[in-house]
């Protein structure tokens, strides 16, 4: 009987470790992997909890002539994230819904522009998991 309990405890610990590793692998921590293709992080991790509409908003300035990549991540795998970029007049500049919910977007603006970036869970049920936005740029 004692051996059976030891085996159950060992299996439980193994499953917990595997689950923890999977959670970390799918966590917002893995967002950095999307910046590895020649993009350098701006040094910020923009993390927020979505509001009552499942949206998190971030404000930033993009400088003309620079190549950027924005990345949206969460640790919720089964619900896609909508990544939208607006100018300050709320004109939609990009939405990943038209691109199979891609988690990132590469772009260059010709002039400096202030933008609002929204990350939204595509779900009607309120989700309280954090979302993360990363902004990277290509070095010239």
- Strand tally is 9
When the domains are counted, the total is: 1
| Helical run tally | 1
Topology pattern, helix = H, strand = E: HEEEEEEEEE
Helical amount: 10-25%
Rg for CA atoms: 19 Å
Please give the alpha-carbon distance between the first and last residues.
67 Å
**Name of the CATH first level:** Mainly Beta
CATH architecture: Sandwich
CATH topology: Jelly Rolls
Principal-axis shape? globular
User: Which residues form runs of ≥5 with pLDDT under 50?
Assistant: 5-27
**Average pLDDT score:** 82
Percent in strands:
35-45%
Question: Could you name the key traits of this structure?
Answer:
140 residues; alpha+beta; Jelly Rolls; five-stranded antiparallel β-sheet; four-stranded antiparallel β-sheet; 1 helix; 9 strands; 17% helix
In summary, what is this structure?
This protein is globular. The protein is of the alpha+beta class and 140 residues long.
Ordered list of secondary-structure elements with their pairings:
Elements: H1 2-25, E1 39-41, E2 46-48, E3 55-62, E4 67-74, E5 81-87, E6 92-95, E7 104-108, E8 113-121, E9 131-138
Antiparallel strand pairs: 1-9, 2-9, 3-8, 4-7, 4-9, 5-6, 5-8
What does this structure look like?
The protein has 140 residues and is an alpha+beta fold. The protein has one domain (28-138): Jelly Rolls (Sandwich), CATH 2.60.120.380. The protein is built from one helix and nine strands; from the N terminus they run H-E-E-E-E-E-E-E-E-E. The strands form two sheets. Strands 1, 2, 4, 7 and 9 form a five-stranded antiparallel beta sheet that branches. The relative contact order is 0.27.
């Amino acid at each position: 009987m004692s051996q059976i309990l030891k085996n159950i405890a060992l299996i439980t610990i193994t499953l917990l470790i595997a689950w923890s590793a999977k959670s970390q692998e799918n966590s917002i921590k893995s967002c950095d992997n999307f910046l590895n293709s020649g993009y350098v992080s701006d040094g910020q991790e923009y993390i927020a909890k979505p509001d009552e509409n499942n949206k998190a908003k971030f404000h930033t300035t993009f400088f003309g002539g620079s190549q950027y990549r924005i990345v949206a991540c969460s640790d919720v795998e089964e619900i896609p994230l909508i990544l939208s970029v607006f100018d300050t007049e709320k004109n939609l500049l990009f939405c990943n819904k038209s691109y199979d919910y891609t988690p990132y977007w590469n772009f260059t603006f010709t002039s400096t522009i202030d933008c609002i970036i929204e990350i939204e869970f595509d779900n009607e049920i309120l989700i309280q998991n954090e979302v993360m936005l990363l902004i990277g740029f290509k070095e010239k």
